[in-house]
Specification:
This protein is mainly beta. The protein is built from one helix and ten strands. It has a four-stranded parallel sheet, with no helix packed on it. Strands 2-5-8 form a three-stranded parallel sheet, with no helix packed on it. It has a three-stranded parallel sheet with strand order 3-6-9, with no helix packed on it. The protein is globular and about 35 Å long.
């Protein structure tokens, strides 16, 4: 993410990632093998924080610190979340 320039596409390989993701520029982040293959887990903050516009996140799953905590935090702009899910989505 740090090396990606504005407008870049970041393809994330399948797996479970135990670190929060902060998107602060207009990039596209997508699951390389499709929905359900990338799971981002955070133990102390939202798993995804988007600060700014122009970002697109596609087919990643996010899990926050606890079942009732925020998994995705949007702090401005108009990001596009396509196929992004959290465990709370499954219970609805």
């Amino acid at each position: 993410m740090l090396a990606a320039g504005d407008g870049a596409t970041i393809s994330v390989q399948p797996g479970v990632y135990h670190e929060p993701l902060v998107v602060d520029r207009p990039v596209t982040i997508l699951a390389a093998k499709g929905a359900g293959t990338v799971h981002v887990v955070s133990v102390d903050r939202p798993a995804l924080t988007v600060t700014g516009s122009g970002a697109t996140v596609r087919d990643l799953e996010f899990e926050g610190p606890a079942a009732n905590d925020v998994a995705v935090l949007l702090r401005g702009g108009a990001p596009v979340l396509e196929g992004a899910a959290s465990p709370a989505d499954a219970s609805r």
